[in-house]
Amino acid sequence: MDFSVLYIGSGQATWNGAVPLAKSGAKVAVIEESQYGGVCSNKGCNAKIILDKPLVLIDQIKALQGRGLDGVPKVNWEDLMAHKHELIVPQDQHGKDRLDNVGITTINGHAEFVDAHTVKVGEKTYTADKIVIATGMRPHRLTIPGAENFADSTDFLSLPHMPEHVTILGGGFVAIEFATIAAAVGAKVDVITRGNRILKQFPAEYVAKVQEDLKRAGVRFIPDMNIARAEKNADGSLTLFGPKEFQLSTDYVLDATGRVPNHDQLNLEAVGVEATNRGIVVNDNLQTNVPNIYASGDAIDKTIAKLTPTAAFESRYLAAKFMGTNDGPIVYPAISEIVFTSPRIAQVGVSLDEAKSKPEQYEVVEASYDGDWYRQIKNEQGAQLALIFDKTSQKLVGAAEMAMDAEETINTIVPYVQMGLTKEQLNDFVYVFPSIAYTLQRRLPLV
Ligand SMILES: Cc1cc2nc3c(=O)[nH]c(=O)nc-3n(C[C@H](O)[C@H](O)[C@H](O)COP(=O)(O)OP(=O)(O)OC[C@H]3O[C@@H](n4cnc5c(N)ncnc54)[C@H](O)[C@@H]3O)c2cc1C
Ligand SMILES: NC(=O)c1ccc[n+]([C@@H]2O[C@H](COP(=O)([O-])OP(=O)(O)OC[C@H]3O[C@@H](n4cnc5c(N)ncnc54)[C@H](O)[C@@H]3O)[C@@H](O)[C@H]2O)c1
């Protein structure tokens, strides 16, 4: 065999494990058809947060007008985009260097299976003892007439000029995060959704508050609407048509209707690897029905969130398995997630909606930060925290926060939930003062 382990795809689901695996002496190869480092580094999380951060800063400056700050800076989208390019363009090379530097063979091109131990890239074939499918997902594209004129998340993240009127189809992460960005830059924004609830995985009451804030920022929500077709007008604008005479003209349409796995382009039929339209089917060892073929990251059909940290966790798990240091099934820790709205909503463990629907099982301790002097340094209003305890064990099993710095609070709480700390144990930490963590501790129920 040419290699001990061959990864298809070079994203988080690959390199987090492939690098230590190669360092341990294994002969490793990575095939990548696009940019090294995958979606997160090149056209996802990183680019998004570079565009978001300055806009959040402006929100914070706005909140402090007349409280020591005078004047609000304007966004220069073109400069911001140039700043984004400067940071993101080198990521591809960094991603390749990271692999080359530890002796991993990097192969450029589109991989397809020939048999269970052989993959081809163009005319060349490569063999390996084990193969990891880490091919991620791509944007789902609507197939209605005129949809070829719509943009996707990758296009938006390189948008040279912000259009006057942006229309977004979908109500998930990408739709709402990008609506937040476009509105903050001054575009008129419409969000059109099939149903009437956005950000379904986050607490309904927090989402409703964020939605109200977005409406105040000028975002219009059009629920229960299935767009049937689109037409391009002579001036380059687009008109969307729905049922019952619905018609909307706009400068730009972002198709944010989800993501689809890339396994349909791997010739899986040649090896008989089982897959669904949600991803590759694996057992609790991340092994497919073909014993020497594994899957990792967004490529997997899984119920846990398809995120960078979960892809990285799976990659490290597989590396430990291949190195022989972990023979057991994958045991996921408490999963945390965040939507980068302004304010953010972040959560970990048992969700607030679930906890509230099961009062016999969970105790929900809710706290507001209004009146907290530290939070009011930034004149932050309406921030809220919910802690979820298991009634029997008194252990903390989940938390959610809606606040400017929600990621900091939830990251502080992640180990508490993971370690199953009780109310009593939560008081046993001494934090830096003043800080977000200290502020959080003052909201914990004292025993
Ligand atoms: C706009 C956007 C924003 C996001 N923001 C966040 C965020 O803030 N936080 C967060 O945790 N997650 C975020 N995500 C999700 C995160 O990017 C993914 O969960 C993560 O990238 C998954 O990593 P992966 O390695 O499984 O897949 P990917 O990063 O998709 O990598 C798969 C790689 O495989 C390659 N590939 C596919 N098929 C083949 C083939 N046949 N041959 C060779 N190569 C192939 C692809 O080119 C790609 O580089 C965001 C996603 C998007 C789109
Ligand atoms: N902050 C973050 O961590 C972050 C940010 C962006 C993306 N992501 C990840 O990327 C992935 C994709 O995010 P996303 O926003 O593209 O997907 P999503 O699944 O979150 O949202 C898709 C939206 O499109 C709607 N939709 C689906 N099909 C439709 C159709 N035919 N017509 C109209 N609407 C339709 C859905 O109802 C939903 O509102 C997620 O798995 C998420 O985990 C994470």
UniProtKB/TrEMBL annotation:
Co-factor binding comment: Binds 1 FAD per subunit.
Needed co-factor(s): FAD
Molecular function, one GO term: oxidoreductase activity
Superkingdom to which the source organism belongs: Bacteria
InterPro entries: FAD/NAD-bd_sf, FAD/NAD-binding_dom, FAD/NAD-linked_Rdtase_dimer_sf, Pyr_nuc-diS_OxRdtase, Pyr_nucl-diS_OxRdtase_dimer
Family, as annotated: Belongs to the class-I pyridine nucleotide-disulfide oxidoreductase family.
Identification of the protein by name: Glutathione reductase (NADPH)
Source species of the chain: Fructobacillus durionis
Native organism taxonomy: Bacteria, Bacillati, Bacillota, Bacilli, Lactobacillales
